[in-house]
Amino acid sequence: MSTKQTQDKLGQTLWGIANELRGAMNADDFRDYMLAFLFLRYLSDNYESSVKKELGNDFPDDTPRDVLKKLGFNTHLQLWYSENTSDIDMFERQMRIKVHYIIKPDYLWGNISELARTQNNDLLLTLQKGFKYIENESFESTFRGLFSEINLDSDKLGKNYEDRNTKLCNIITKIAEGIADFSTDSDTLGDAYEYLIGQFAAGSGKKAGEFYTPQQLSTILSKIVILDCQNPQLGPKQKLNKVLDFACGSGSLLLNVKDKIEKDGGTIGRIYGQENNITTYNLCRMNMLLHGVKDSEFEIHHGDSLKNDWGLLNEMNPAKKVEFDAIVANPPFSLRWTPSEVMSEDFRFKNYGLAPKSAADFSFLLHGFHFLSDSGTMAIILPHGVLFRGGAEQKIRTKLLKDGNIDAVIGLPSNLFFSTGIPVCILILKKCKKNEDVLFINACEHFKKNKRQNELRPQDIDKIVNTYINRPKEEERYARSVSMKEIASNDFNLNISRYVSTAKPEKKIDLEEVNQRLIDIEQKIKQSRSEHNKYLKELGLKPI
């Protein structure tokens, strides 16, 4: 079985378990429990694998399970701790260097799953202590609040401690059984985690827009932002020093960028993300670690991008401004916001003006664009309204166009998101771009229609990316490079259909030919009537 098939099968297995166990529980609530346990399984297996390498022959993994049980232990590391109390501090210091975190033996998945299997009444209490320990002590860099949205005392799990403990025993036992035969490496479990996020997003309806960007869209943005800024035909860069998603949700877009550049032999220096929803923020941090990104290689901030409350990005001194080589984002569409008068002087907006209260789309765009490096590329998903709405948005759009910052406009089919059926566009922005024109790609007709959600196929994604790379002067009904002069003549309106129409031309009608055909038909009618009347006359009937 291929790696992809294994990952898909694991995802489907876990999703089957979720459907079987959640009962009347809301999909969002059950998602948080299940993903947390999957995360704990990954951390535990990764940690224990490193422990075995570190301890070598001193690790007592040759002790039979029945002997462990008689000694009162569920894992070999519990046994080692009991026999080597004086060495624990030095051992844990070494493990922090090796894997960047430690987990006490009682909180490892092996012990938790065995407590669950045996319906041990201490499971819930051990889980609570374990989650608190991982949040506050496992990592050198704090992961405070990582499990803050996972309420193990919730009535949704049961009315009292015993009921909740029993429910958790059943959930964890089923998960343990379901994943027992699968690899627990970061690729397999990480992709299973992504699969579950997508499935829960589908089941959550409109709420899903808060945390999930469909992989097909993530792939388009990722493949574009890793390309050489001045000449995309040169292919992907060798290194992106810093990558940012300022509305990062569960982190799938950032991980997609990392995946794409590494598959092309490149590297990322550090990953940065910001997320305002606390539950989603925690999902993102787990997702990073689950995909093998070390805690020292990423920084996710919980806060409001529009208010710019992240100290890292709020540096007033231009010389100290943090800049990013690639910026990707799928912010909330047309979010209502309440900018204060002071915001008009904000360094992100003062040269452009403020976006209207009714739609913060350009506020998100300008926030990200401010931190883009001169050699970087930004790709952002937005509703089509940003292309043609007037007022303050027209002023912002006009300045970006006149300054040569909008590189491409990509129109996508409708119904690609779980959260909305509207068609969306991707804007590609640069601070120093080579081409003076704007590339329009109208991909609205290239997709697979599904019952629930439309889907961009691999060939549809490749066509978009290759068209962006090759930048044709014109490809009928699909793409066109449009001069600034033409855009200016349209009052800087970027409505895609103005420049690349997919309307089918009406068939030309030759009136002279039509007229002759009518004359011929009329003549035939006349002849037929005359012949018919002749027969009627012979029969002594009245002619017509």
What are the SSEs and their pairings?
Layout lengths: L2 H19 L5 H29 L9 H6 L5 H8 L4 H12 L9 H9 L5 H16 L22 H19 L6 H19 L10 H11 L13 E7 L6 H12 L3 E9 L2 H13 L7 E5 L21 E6 L31 H10 L1 E12 L8 H11 L3 E6 L12 E6 L8 E5 L15 H13 L3 E2 L3 E4 L1 H6 L6 H4 L11 H28 L6
Helix pairs in contact: 1-8, 1-9, 2-9, 2-12, 6-8, 10-11, 10-15
The gross shape turns out to be: globular
Strand content: 5-15%
Q: Biggest sheet: strands side by side, in what order? A: 3-2-1-4-5-7-6-8-10-9
User: What is the average of the pLDDT values?
Assistant: 90
- Main sheet specs: 10 strands, mixed
Count of helical segments? 18
Instruction: Please compute the radius of gyration using only Cα atoms.
Output: 31 Å
Q: Helices and strands, in N-to-C order?
A: HHHHHHHHHHEHEHEEHEHEEEHEEHHH
Q: Kindly state the number of beta strands.
A: 10
Give the end-to-end Cα distance, rounded to a whole number of Å: 80 Å
**Content-based structural category:** alpha/beta
Binned, the helix content reads 40-55%
List segments where confidence is low: pLDDT < 50 over at least 5 consecutive residues: 206-210
